[in-house]
Amino acid sequence: MMAANTVPLLPRLVSSSVAIANHAGKIIRDVLNKGDLQIVQKEHVKDLQTEADRAAQRCIIGSLTKHFPGLIIIGEEEESSGPVQLTEQSSVVPLKFTCPPHLAKLSQEQIVVWVDPLDGTSEFTEATAAAAHKCLMGNHDTGCGAHSTSLLDHVTVLIGIAVDGKTVAGIIHQPYFNYKNKEKELGRTIYGIIGSAGENDGVVGGLLVKPPPTGCVVATTRSHASSTVNDAVSSCDPTEVLRVGGAGHKVLLLLDGSAHAYVFASPGCKKWDTCAPQAVLEAAGGALTDIKGDHILYHRHVQHRNSEGVLATAPGQDHAAYIRKIPAHVKENLVK
Ligand SMILES: Nc1ncnc2c1ncn2[C@@H]1O[C@H](COP(=O)(O)O)[C@@H](O)[C@H]1OP(=O)(O)O
Ligand SMILES: [Mg+2]
Question: Does the keyword DNA repair apply (predicted)?
Answer without folding.
Answer: no
